[in-house]
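Changelog note: in this version the structure field was regenerated for every chain. One regenerated record is shown below for reference.
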Amino acid sequence: MGPDFDGFWLEPGHELLVGRASQCDIRLPDATISRQHFRLQSTDEGCFAIDLGSRLGISVNDLQSTKESKVLLKTGDLISCGPWVFRTGTRSGASVSMQTIDDSVEVEARVQRMSQSDIGALAQHRLSLLIDSSADINKASNLKELGALLVKSAIDGTGFQRAAMLMPADAEGEIEVVAFLDGNSRDATGTTFSRSLLEGACKGDVACMLSGQTAGFGQSIADLNIHSAICSGLMVDDVLVAYLYLDAREQERQIQTDAAGFCQALCRMAGLAYANLRRLEMQIRQIKLEQDISAAREAQQLMIPKDIGVGEVFGWGHIFRPGREASGDLLDIIPLSDSRMALVVGDVSGKGAGAAIMMAASQSYLHSRIIKGSDPAEAVAAVNAFIARRSAMNKFLTLWVGVFDAEMKELTYVDAGHGHWAIRRANGTAEAPPSPDGFLVGIDATSEYRNATLLVEPGDRIIIFSDGIPEQQTKGEEQYGVERVYDLVAESPSAEEDVKRLLQAVIKWAGHPELDDDTTIVSLGLI
């Protein structure tokens, strides 16, 4: 999760340096990433993530690492680094449940590989059975059901009594049993499978052990009295995803002469059904994700101020547009009296639903503190301690919190790392704001914040915006910048026009209405 980035593999015995610097093996271009942030290392003892003393560190499964500590990684672990979250995995993928027997010595002498061109045409009466089997297989609604239908069809059409659908688990020969059928039994406990047959079918061919070959096949197979066996691979886009495995033992019925061709045809059909199931599963996940994000956006929109009753003292306008359905931007405006108004603007690190949840928690906490009478410095210090003690090191936000007092003609504010705002005076000039003197919120629970003051006269306005405005790029990757913001608001006649004109200018700059980042613009001032 996070900004667009391709996945990567850590090869056995290798290391990968991760950071912002150009010499890093994995380069993460973000200001929250240190030049050399952490190292991924593969050794005989396992795979490790090692923090290199980075400013914000990393966390593994939400547990913050310490400098130079080696955190052992397992399949499925989540590594958080700046705005990215990586999930670890292995190329082999599936869980382990069964063990194959190693009978792979002299495989070529005992396993017959039959390519597609070697499989003859099926007889007409067999074709009908194959068509019926195809119809059944394509009715499967999940992997277990697909496996059950596949093994039943294989037994019905080949003469074998025992069949299994297997999925590869690792390079040591362990496999997962998806479905198994032996007479009326579906319990594969104690059943063994030939590793050499699985290896023979791993490229999509059919591996056969025919009657009369058992003497040279291996003592373990001979002990089980297996006289015939077939293994065929299920392929999706030339990638092996499963096996169809059948064997016949002493005194079991004779095997059909075209059993190998029938199995291969079944596997082609099952491969298509498997791909469709995976596609459907992804579509369902996407729908659920979109529903969750939509619900988060609706909840977030409820928190954005609409009619705040500014009356005849204040004028204001705002625009709030998420870049990825749910926004990490924070906006709140709080009437305190007829002559006092509080304004809160912020930006949470990261994007999407996770950032939106952190935004909502921060906004609710700030709103409560300000309503209860806290000044900006007190409110920011409180929310900083609240967030820092409850979130990972790489989760933080920038904040601008100010209170306008129309009677005193004064703005009291704290700029905690935000920095993106402008002062538009009544005489038509625009000023750059002072540099932020407050630390980012959520990094250090003990950080202290100080109030700053600014004199404001009737007609003066404060225009605050998220970093998506100055950082919006053209197709040529030129940023809009803050100077263009100052020039634009200097010529704008009102708070409503400030936000309207600025958004239109940035959209025109981008060349399309969908901006790269969350977009928040608010203008507030004395009338």
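Spot check on this record: The mean pLDDT is 82. Residues 197 and 400 are 67 Å apart (CA to CA).
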